[in-house]
Write a structure and sequence with these properties.
Blueprint: E1 4-6, E2 15-18, E3 29-32, E4 56-61, E5 71-77, E6 85-92, E7 96-102, E8 108-110, E9 119-121, E10 132-135, E11 142-147, E12 151-155, E13 161-166, E14 171-174, E15 180-182, E16 191-193
Parallel strand pairs: 1-2, 2-3, 8-9, 15-16
Antiparallel strand pairs: 4-5, 5-6, 6-7, 7-8, 10-11, 11-12, 12-13, 13-14
Length: 203
């Protein structure tokens, strides 16, 4: 059948090295061995030896034999003085563009290549807002948590801002004409509190 086997007399793929699987395997290549723990089955090595930030090794994906890479997963050097590498995920948008990065210290960035927290969404240097969308179990209904200029907004599926946190004036704005209930699920007034309230300087 034209398959090549190394360490096996019955290769199940075009190239099989070592042991196979008892289930469905890959059509093109298969690598197998017995190992306690995590098996390092394949190494990709950049032998340039350069300490420059941004150097690394990648695994490319081509959707067609005539296409340039349409996706990439890359190990990327992030520091020049000591070896620290992150993992970059690229998709194709007129060219390969990095869309997600896991840094050497474990931060995850979506829409940014330099995440500053465990989860960092968006990149204000490139005017890319980090918006979170939460879908309802009801069709075509969802909510968004979206930043604005000095604000953080909660919007409905129509784009209407329901709650806005203003970082410049330290105000919280509830829009849409609804009532706010604390300790109650059916507020009858603009602010309806079921319980004791303490306040200073009421007027």
């Amino acid at each position: 059948n034209g398959n090549v086997g190394i360490g096996t007399t019955g290769p199940l793929a075009k190239l099989q090295v070592g042991l196979s699987t008892s289930n469905s395997g890959s059509t093109l290549a298969m690598f197998g061995a017995a190992n306690s723990g995590i098996l390092s089955a394949l190494s990709l090595v950049n032998t340039t030896g350069n300490n420059a930030i941004g150097y690394g090794t990648a695994l490319d994906f081509h959707m067609n034999s005539s296409y340039s890479p349409t996706a990439r997963i890359a190990s990327i050097r992030e520091t020049s003085n000591v070896v620290k590498a992150g993992l970059g995920f690229f998709t194709y948008e007129g060219g390969l563009i990095e869309k997600m990065r896991i840094t050497n210290d474990g931060n995850v960035g979506i829409g940014t290549t330099s995440p500053q927290n465990l989860l960092h969404l968006g990149d204000n240097t490139n005017s890319k807002a980090g918006t979170i969308r939460i879908d309802s179990f009801v069709a075509n209904q969802f909510w968004k948590i979206e930043p604005g200029t000095n604000t953080l907004n909660i919007k409905d599926y129509n784009g209407t801002s329901l709650v806005s946190f203003d970082g410049a004036s330290n105000n919280v704005l509830f829009s849409g004409g609804g009532n706010v209930g604390i300790g109650t699920t059916s507020p009858s007034y603009k602010l309806d509190v079921a319980g004791e309230v303490r306040a200073n300087n009421l007027f």
